[in-house]
Amino acid sequence: MRRPSRLKFLFPIGLVIAFLLEGSISKLFSPVLFEKFSMVPYLTLMWLVMATLFARHEKLHIGWWALGIGIVYDVYYVGIVGIFMFAFPLVVYINRIVFKFVRENLVTSSLIYMGDVLVVFVLSYLGDRIAHIASLSGTQLLIYTLGPTLVLNLILFVILYFPIRALFNYFS
Amino acid sequence: MHKFFSSRKLVIIVVCLIIGLGLISGSVAVRKNRATPPLIQQVGNDVVGFGDRIVSLSANGVGSLFGATGNLLNTYQENNHLKGQVEQLAQTQVKNQALENENTKLRQQLDIKGTPTDYKSINASVITRTPSSWLNQLIINKGSASGVQKNMSVIVNSGLVGRVAEVNKTNSKVELITDKGDNASRFSVQVQGQKKVVNGLIDGYNRDTNELVMGSVTNQDKIKTGTKVMTNGLGGVTPKGLFVGKVAGTKQNSDGISEKVNIKPAANMDDIEAVTVIGKKD
C-alpha cells in the first residue's frame, strides 16, 4: 500500500477553485465572451479531465467528486437540477474507458477533451431545452456558440496542459 | 469495447435518464410556481455563494484594475461631457422636486395610495454569472433576508436589465431580458405614439442587432424612432416608469395586422457590476 498522496487535497481544492473561477471569469469577461461569438470556459470540466489524465493511478474518487460538483453546478449556476450532475460523471467515465485504449499525450488528450466539451455542451443544451430556459437555436447555436466554445476550450486546454501536469506531478 | 452496452450498463443509463428528466421537470416546476426553491437547495446556494464572494471579490479587484486604467485615459473627455449634463441635471432636479411635492399634495387630497409608480428598491452587487451561452443569468448578493422577492424587476442606472428568477436567503438569480426563455422577459411596456399610448409585451431579443422586440401591441399608431420605452406597471410586481430603451424601428408582421417594435435597450447587458432590485410598494 502506498502512502496517500497530497493529491487527495489538491484535487478537491482545485475543483472548487475552478468551479468558482468559471463563474467569475464568465462575469468579468462577459463583454468578450458573450458578444456576437458566445463561448463558455468550461474550467470545472477541464480540471476533472486533467485529473482523469494525470492522476489515473490514484484513488481519488473522481467520479463521485464529478457528481457532487455537478449537483452544486446545477443548483448554484443554473437553478435546474439534473443536467451537469450526470454530464460530469459521464465525461469522467468516458475518459476512463478511452484511455484504456489510447496512449495519453497532448494531441490525444486535447482531441478527447474536445469530445468531452461536446458531450457536456450537447447534454446541457438538451437539458436547458427541456427546461425551456435555452434561448438559442439553429445557426446561432452551431456557428456562433458551439464553434467558438470548442476553440476557446481547446486553446485553454493546450495552454494549461503542461502547467497542470507539472502541478499534479509535484503533488503526487 | 464489445461489453460497453451490456445489459447492466443499459439499465444504469436508462435509470440515470429517468432520474435526470424527473429532476429537471421537478426543478422547473419549483422555479415556475414557488417563491423560493426547496430549503436544501437554498442552503446549498447560500453556502456556495458565501465562498464565491471571496473568489469574485479578488477576481473583480483584478478586473477593476484594468477598468480603472481605461477610465483614466478617457477621463478628460468624459469630464467635459458630464459638465454640460450636470448643469441641465440641476434644473431637472429642482423641477422634479417641485413636481413631486405637487404630486404628493394632490394625492393626499384625492386620497390615493400606492399608485403604480411607487416602488421600493434594494441595491445589490453581482457576484457571478452563469457560465452558459443560452442562459443569461446573474447571481446577486442580496436575497430574501434583504427583502428580495421573486419576479421583482432588476435595473442598472441606465435602464431595465431583467427579473429575479430565484430567491435564496442571501443571494438570488437574475434572468436578463435578453433571454428568450419562457418566463424570462415578458415585460409589459408602453411607448408614446403620435396620438395615444401604445402598450405591448417584450417578447424577444435579436442577438444580431442587439435589439429587444416588443409584440402584442395594443393599438396602431405611428411611433417615432428614438421614442423612450418604459414599463407600464400593468400586472405583476413591476412598477410603472422603469426605463427600458429607445425605439429603433417598427416592423409590420407578416400577417399584416400586428406590429413589432424594435427597442434598443438602454442598459449594456454585457457589463453589469451593480444592480438595483425594484418591487412595487405594497
Automatic annotation (TrEMBL), chain B:
GO terms for biological process: regulation of cell shape. The keyword Transferase does not apply. Residues 82-109 form a coiled coil. Gene3D superfamilies: Rod shape-determining protein MreC, domain 1, Rod shape-determining protein MreC, domain 2, Single helix bin. Residues 126-278 form the Rod shape-determining protein MreC beta-barrel core domain. InterPro entries: Cell/Rod_1 (IPR042177), Cell/Rod_MreC_2 (IPR042175), MreC (IPR007221), MreC_beta-barrel_core (IPR055342). Keywords: Cell shape, Coiled coil. It holds the Pfam family MreC. GO terms for cellular component: plasma membrane. Involved in formation and maintenance of cell shape. NCBIfam families: mreC (TIGR00219). Belongs to the MreC family. This is Cell shape-determining protein MreC. The lineage of its organism: Bacteria, Bacillati, Bacillota, Bacilli, Lactobacillales.
